[in-house]
Amino acid sequence: MNSTVTEQLIDFNEKQRVFHLHNNLISYIFSIEKGGFLSHLYFGKRVRNYHGQLKNPQRDRGFSDNLPGTQDRTYSLDFLLQEYSSQGDGDFRKPAAVIRQANGSQSTFFVYRAHTISSGKPKLEGLPAAYLLDGSEAQTLTVTLEDELSHVELELMYTIYRDRPVIARSVKLTNKGTTTINVEKLASLQLDLPADRKQVISLPGAHMNERHLERENVNFGVKSFSSRRGTTSHQMNNFIALCDPNTDEFTGDVYGFSLVYSGNHKEEVEKDPYGAIRILVGINDEQFDWQVKSKQSFQTPEVLLTYSDNGFNGLSHTLHKLLRERVARGKFQYALRPILVNNWEATFMDFNEDKLKPLVAEAKQLGLEMFVLDDGWFGHRDDDRSSLGDWQVFQKKFPAGLKRFADYVHTNHLKFGLWFEPEMISIDSELYRQHPDYMLQVPGRQPSPSRDQYVLDIGREAVRENIHDQISQLLDSCPIDYIKWDMNRHLTDIYSKALPAERQGETFHRYVLGLYKLLEELTTEYPNILFEGCSGGGGRFDAGLLYYMPQSWTSDNTDAVARMQIQYGTSLAYPVSSMAAHVSVSPNQQTGRTTSLQTRGAVAMSGVFGYELDLTQLTVAEKTVVKKQVSLYKKIRPIIQYGTFIRLLDPSKGNHCAWMFVATDKSVAVVFSFKLLAEAQPDFKRLKLAGLDPQKDYQNTTSGEIFGGDELMNTGFYESIQPGDFNSQMYYFKLV
Ligand code: GLA
């Protein structure tokens, strides 16, 4: 529901010393307590008005110390629900901030000094963040805290959107003292919640096995989810959710925490001795040490804090809209993404212009829209041991240059896409021969290879400029419509030759800032190029990268059955318009599993659709199926990419998987349902839909059957039982 522009979203009650951030959907309340400490009171469904009766209880608890200079034994930070904690202040839980001062002390006491409430949302210097289209969309509360002794100031930023259950939070530290300090930890967000039984959802995985839904009880102690790999990682995504034990896809409370960042991260969930829960989210403090000189500042990345009382689908709905509408940017933000064919699984690096041309011609015949040339077109790259860093075309494969081939693709009425891996260097490269110092490497120590490649110190300006200039020379000389920006290893040998000894702890974060700078430049200079993120599949699938690149390769695993879980998990936190999914050969190259072209198509059509196989090798019958898939996808594409996505059946919980897409006006629904293994005596199960108009009637356009929206959602319908493994069905329902 739209509110009026003038409605205040943030109140400060002077008498109670209470802040209340609210819109029609949520309330977030905290107070300034004795000693100037901020205490969290509530986050959840909207309350009209906070009357000041709810106070965090106090009590004399043994071994919980009290405020310096006071004799009140009942008041301790050790069990106060705090808004933002630090180390050494008597709160023995995990701190949000750890600051090392000139005398070596790591203790700080941050207390309230001032606050401002303003409309709009400030930009975060050098970092991706959710944005506004106009200033009236949100209001921002900035609370300034100060440590009296060191004169370090923290500005806690809270932006509440008017029409979304979302609060964007970040922290800016400013050193107002006269001596240099070191930030050892600065979380973007702390959320302390009262004692309650909760569960935490995370998205762990591995290369070719990303973002599986993991749900576990929050138990006593600290549980942390993190990456120390220099990037978001396949191994642990930087999204977590906290829910009630009975929350399911459609009902129950859930809080989401999305870190808008692409480097080392940590999400800590602590249940304290009295059952209260603390969440901390931000840059991973391990191997992090940032020097802040007098008068300088440090800005943390942003966390998008979301709330739903409609279960996980409710949360995903908020996140999908938010990431699509207020994080993704540029010309392709709402564009229908082209159906592509990528030559990677078709040829790997064994190709040349002549070998590729028939693939292009076939793609055109089958109705595809873009041809993507993957790894192996540059330097002298015939395998993955050379040429990273040399972004000039490989003459042997393209004797007349890349432009002639790009023109050929364009004359076939296809767009032309190209693969890059800009952050990497091979020892066997011109770049290494000229600039051996450009890679991350500890002086005197041999660096560790991974896939025979090394990482560029992209935090350094000279390195960035070199890569930027090479890429732009190519883009200026050859018409390119899409870039797949890959990153095929994680960071080791953390040492930047551009930094003095005392700043080496900044290398990881400077890498990410450098990457963002390079991406900001290239995406601004080439606004007509669609960028797709990739890191060995979905190794850097996060809200930070989405700000520069509206879609990402979801996984190097193209097996349809494995993809069901990967896409199901990914969809918890990320919109379908960001999830690239391709049909590849069967048996699958990663798992050896055999699946039908129909099932492979159905899974891939549930994302940003494409093919990744040798189209010329398809039989006539298969080509007919592909043509049908392509034309079907063109029809359903707006609903798939920009409609409402709803998860129905979780493939990790049984023998079925199902999800659906509903047009924004509820006039059309597309449902995909999958059965995993064949059963001799299958259940007669009904599939129940969601998100339809209960008052209207819908027709299954294949069978002609008519159902009420309420019938489809409440009574459901029986699916026909297909023989064999890994079957799929698609239903298209249209308003009558
Ligand atoms: C990564 C990507 C693949 C492919 C290869 C090329 O693994 O995820 O899709 O581009 O690199 O080397």
Automatic annotation (TrEMBL):
GO terms for molecular function: alpha-galactosidase activity. Belongs to the glycosyl hydrolase 36 family. The active site is at D486 (nucleophile), D556 (proton donor). Residues 656-733 form the Glycosyl hydrolase family 36 C-terminal domain. PANTHER family: ALPHA-GALACTOSIDASE C-RELATED (PTHR43053:SF3), GLYCOSIDASE FAMILY 31 (PTHR43053). Residues 36-292 form the Glycosyl hydrolase family 36 N-terminal domain. It is an enzyme of class 3 (hydrolase). It catalyses: Hydrolysis of terminal, non-reducing alpha-D-galactose residues in alpha-D-galactosides, including galactose oligosaccharides, galactomannans and galactolipids. This is Alpha-galactosidase. The keyword Cytoplasm does not apply. GO terms for biological process: carbohydrate catabolic process. SUPFAM superfamilies: (Trans)glycosidases. It holds the Pfam family Glyco_hydro_36N.
